[in-house]
Amino acid sequence: MKVIDIINSENPTLSLEVFPPKVSAKYESIEKATEEIAALKPGFMSVTYGAGGGTSDFTVSIAENLEKKFDVPVLAHLSCISSTKEGVRTQLEHIKAAGLTNILALRGDIPEGMTNSEEWDYHYATELVREIKEFDKDICIGGACYPEVHPDSENQVEDIKHLKEKVDAGCEFLTTQMFFDNNIFYNFLYKVREAGITVPIVPGIMPLTNINQLKRTLALSGTVLPLRFRYLLDKFGSDEAAMKQAGIIYASEQIIDLYANGIKNVHVYSMNKPEVALKLMENFSEILKWQRP
Prior knowledge:
The protein is of the alpha/beta class.
């Protein structure tokens, strides 16, 4: 099933993101965690491609296993900045052979030491979107967007201009980078609609459950923490169990506010934590009409 059809349905959804292992030694434990999350039957799932400019050899295998074993639609991430055209085509062949029909097309993080842009086969996600459309026009393509501006953009006006180019190239929906203040998302949504971008935009929410996770997240995303969340960290950050509970509650409050304001689809960065995914699904059981397996 195509993710865009799920997003466009009348029913509210909660989708969950997982990541594959970086090395084969961790495959079994990560596969188990992703399966526990898939067993919760979210609206759909996404499987990342690799952070910090890396790529994953396991994205397709994890995605294929989840979709076939649990009958959950899966969105396979595909980034291009560190890839050749031949490499992207090979990955697309793997995705198609696995029976996957949904791709999140990303530029990806520029790897350390990769500086000669004239030699790159890809510079922007828009180029990848066009490549996927040429490969198979029936693939459902999603893209990423940044409510707080992409780190490489000069300003939000320029950022939204490039975002529209990506949508015009064939992106059917967009998923946001994480944010911790819903007003940032609502303001962004107004601006992109004003710019003529009409595709669905799915807000991305990350439950921050420990201090180390917070440091890594802020380093990668540049996301601003509101004062309200900083107070929460000051109070509960040194207590692992309390911080996990506080992080889930904070994320839940963000999600319920989004639903209450007419947003039907919310995407959660689960960080491969089944217990966090379970608690969130339980918190919205009546809204989603979700029943515990």
